[in-house]
Amino acid sequence: MMKKLMVSLAVIAFCAMSLQAVALPAYSSQVQQITTTFSPVYGTGSAEVTSTVYAATGGGYIYAYEIKNATNTFSWFSVALLPGAVVTGTGYDSGTNDPTSWTTVGVPATSVEGLFAIQIAPGVDSSVVWFTSPGAPTRDLGSLTGLGTKGTFNYLEGGILTPIPEPMTMVLLGAGWLALRTCGRKR
Fold first, then answer.
1. Which residues contact 153 (CB under 8 A, 6 or more apart)?
2. Is 92 buried (19+), middle (13-18) or exposed (0-12) by CB count in 10 A?
3. d(CA 23, CA 97)
4. In the predicted model, is pLDDT for residue 168 greater than 70?
5. Cβ distance 115 to 144 under 8 Å?
6. What is the pLDDT of residues 2-48, one digit of tens each?
7. Parallel/antiparallel/unpaired status of strands 74-80 and 27-42
8. Residue 107 has pLDDT above 80, yes or no
């Protein structure tokens, strides 16, 4: 048990040392933005998460997230990825509360997750965390987790913007083409 704890702490320390602030990559325009109030699945509290998607200058998209107006304390943020979605890079804009870790989880990636050493709390917002992807935006779930002010476990979920997997884009285009072709024949 102690060995597992030490290995886990070593991995967290390594991730914290290797993570450096990187400004948002160059972009040509904002594609979409939503602000969602995350609500409790377990525990109490809420927080607003703003998801913004930019068209990257070199192609693809930049997915950026900022957490504000928390009514409890949270230290972990996760963006769910749809099966087949691709993440090509991660980073964060240095701000008032930088993550100690912000990376993809799983092979293939199933989420992008961040750990904040300074808890996101009332009056303490997160820095902007971001990742790049070739996939266009759709909506899925994100989550926030942390120990509350009284030591209680809190788990919140809310809607965020996340990339559509590339094969899904082709399926949607194909379905649209079939619908247009079918409607065209009926006239």
1. 42, 43, 145, 147
2. buried
3. 15
4. no
5. no
6. 444 333 433 443 444 345 567 777 788 999 999 999 999 999 999 99
7. unpaired
8. yes
Domain spans, the chain:
18-179
Q: Does domain 18-179 correspond to CATH entry 2.60.40?
A: yes
Q: Is the pTM of this model over 0.85?
A: no
What single-letter DSSP state applies at residue 24? P
Residue 112, token pair as written in the block: 């992008």
The arrangement of strands across the sheet holding 153-163 comes to 89-93, 128-133, 61-68, 47-56, 27-42, 153-163, 137-147, 74-80, 111-120, 99-105
Per-residue pLDDT band at 167 (split at 50, 70, 90):
low
Tokens of 80: 């769910």
In the structure encoding, which two tokens stand for residue 127, read together? Answer: 């820095």
Distances (CA, A) of 5 to 70, 90, 96, 187: 30, 27, 29, 68
pLDDT digits (tens, 9 = 90+) for 59-68: 999 999 999 9
